[in-house]
Amino acid sequence: MYFQYGEAETAYLSARDEQMAAVIAQAGHIEREVDTDLFSAVVHHIVGQQISTKAQATIWKRMRDEFGVVDAAAVLGAGVEKLQSFGMTFRKAEYITDFARKIESGEFDLEGIRQRPDDEAIRELSGLKGVGVWTAEMILLFCMQRPDVFSYDDLAIQRGLRMVYHHRKIDRKLFEKYRRRFSPYCSVASLYLWAAAGGAVPGLKDYAPAQKPKRKG
């Protein structure tokens, strides 16, 4: 299943912004997979932190092959050592186990998150061990399919903004200007900025200042 959007969102963004309109026209419709199961999505995102997409996919496949369905019962039945054997760190295995315990005990109302406004959902999710604000935002976008997610902490979105709008740096004030411009369809704008950052639009370059080589002392 892919993130659901259509003509209404792209027409709105194109009308609001000429540069975004050009990116949309060149990139076409973007298909990004979503995982609508909240428990599985949280675990998947914890697994994927600070590792490559390929490594994340390898670990996730091992978990799916072993468990079938990645749920709290499967995680608790496996234990930390078994989780580590899939290729994740001890700390991540602990985070995932702690999360599963909170779900099983009813301490954390996962399905209740679906009823929360974005800011509340992000605050509650980022209160879990191993889940920061960026991870919570990605869960809102790629699991809950919230339409207006725009993550300041996402380096690829910042890169996309620099490339599309020829900025050298994206500070919070400038970022919020774009958030207001793209709202209420920031999630779709994010998809296109990720595409731009990944090279989907020929001719764009990153305007960030070149890093000076460190002097050897």
Task: Report what the structure shows.
With 217 residues, this protein is mainly α. It is 59% helix and 0% strand. The protein has eleven helices and no strands. Helix 2 crosses helix 11 and helix 3 packs across helix 8. The longest helix has 16 residues, at 90-105. The N and C termini lie far apart (53 Å). The mean pLDDT is 95.
Range of helix content: 55-70%
SS field, number of helical segments: 11
Quaternary status: single chain
End-to-end Cα distance, whole Å, is 53 Å
Counted beta strands: 0
Q: What is the element string, with H for helices and E for strands?
A: HHHHHHHHHHH
Computed structural class: mainly alpha
Gross morphology: globular
Report the major sheet. Answer: none
Q: What Rg do the Cα atoms give?
A: 19 Å
Strand content: under 5%
Low-confidence stretches: none
Look at the structure and give the mean pLDDT: 95
